[in-house]
Amino acid sequence: MVSQSEKINKLDRDILLIKKDIDIIKSNHLKHIETDISMIKKVMWSVGFLVFSNLLAIIITEIK
Predict the structure, then answer these.
(1) Phi and psi angles of residue 3, each rounded to the nearest 5 degrees, phi first
(2) What pTM was estimated for this model as a whole?
(3) How far apart (Å, rounded) are the C-alpha atoms in residues 58 and 42?
(4) How far is 8 from 5, CA to CA, in rounded Å?
(5) Per-residue pLDDT tens digits for 9-51
């Protein structure tokens, strides 16, 4: 039978592991996600600019 103090010790170890995992996620994975989102934003702006310039070119050719 497991004593109360052994259960508490196991919970303490589990909490420490969870804290360690959270620190790893905060320090490493979030940086990669931020980089990926930044790249996606740049692509979206580029595509938006291209669509707008093509639309503008079509309007100008239709006016002439």
Answers:
(1) -80, 165
(2) 0.56
(3) 24
(4) 5
(5) 999 999 999 999 998 888 888 888 889 999 999 999 999 999 9
Whole-angstrom distance, CA of residue 61 vs CA of residue 64: 5
C-alpha of 14 from chain center: 26
- CA quadruple 30, 35, 39, 44: dihedral, nearest 10: 30
Distance between CA 23 and CA 17 in Å, rounded?
10
> How far is CA 6 from each of CA 18, 19, 24, 29, rounded to the nearest angstrom?
18, 20, 27, 33
